[in-house]
Design a protein that fits this description.
By secondary structure, the chain is mainly β. The chain has three domains: about 60 residues, SH3 type barrels; about 60 residues, OB fold (Dihydrolipoamide Acetyltransferase, E2P), CATH 2.40.50; about 55 residues, Nucleic acid-binding proteins (OB fold (Dihydrolipoamide Acetyltransferase, E2P), Beta Barrel), CATH 2.40.50. It has two helices and 16 strands. The strands form four sheets. It has a five-stranded antiparallel sheet.
Length: about 200
């Protein structure tokens, strides 16, 4: 079964419900200007006596374009029924990533544009959560914290652990992260996938 591709048309929407804009959250799917979109970022903004609003970045599933939009908190938005399922990430293949349904063992391809920045913290056998609409994967989410190995970082310098100055480190995925001075190559650490920040040494 092939995953979705940019430009693949989305048909009519079924099983839609309404939510208030104030209930928008990252990863939620909404129908905006007749198109299926996924919320990438969303913030509640309140400025003094002025009316508060929701500032969001939403990605059009059909075009792949991310737009900045603003909603009044009381605006009502359509949200389609989507299915959330857990998959096991297996491997990358060309411009897609292969994941396996943990219950049926069926494998599907997820386009790299949908995986997005999650690739920086993605390793084989990791559990990921995908949202599907009409059988198409429309979002791909890692656990909030994952465990990764440090492949390269400057050696511990005497006295640096006292000041605890952070330093650069390269993860096994190739991504870079700032870590405490006492962390050495070969160690495993826990990283927050939402911020890309070091959390702690792996137990």
């Amino acid at each position: 079964m092939e995953g979705p591709r940019p430009g693949r048309p989305v048909a009519h929407f079924e099983s839609v419900s309404m939510i208030k804009a104030v209930d928008l959250r990252k990863g939620r799917c909404v129908i905006h200007e007749g198109e299926l979109c996924v919320v990438h970022e969303c913030h509640h903004v309140a400025k003094g006596n002025k009316r508060s609003y929701m500032q969001a970045k939403i990605k059009n599933f059909k075009t792949g374009i991310i737009n900045d939009v603003r909603f009044n908190v009381d605006d009502r938005l359509e949200t389609p029924f989507v299915e959330s399922k857990e998959y096991e990430y297996l491997y990358a293949e060309g411009d897609s990533f292969v994941v396996m349904d943990k219950e049926t063992f069926d494998q599907i391809h997820v386009d790299k544009d949908i995986v997005g920045d999650a690739v920086d913290y993605l390793t084989p056998n990791e559990t990921v959560t995908c949202q599907l609409y009409n059988g198409n994967v429309i979002s791909f989410e890692l656990p909030h914290v994952v465990e990764l190995a440090i492949t390269d970082t400057p050696p511990v310098v005497k006295g640096s652990t006292v000041t605890n100055q952070p330093k650069d480190a390269r993860l096994e995925t190739g991504a870079r992260v700032r870590v405490p001075a006492f962390i050495e190559p070969g160690e495993r650490i826990r990283v927050d996938t939402r911020t890309g920040e070091y959390v702690e040494r792996a137990k």
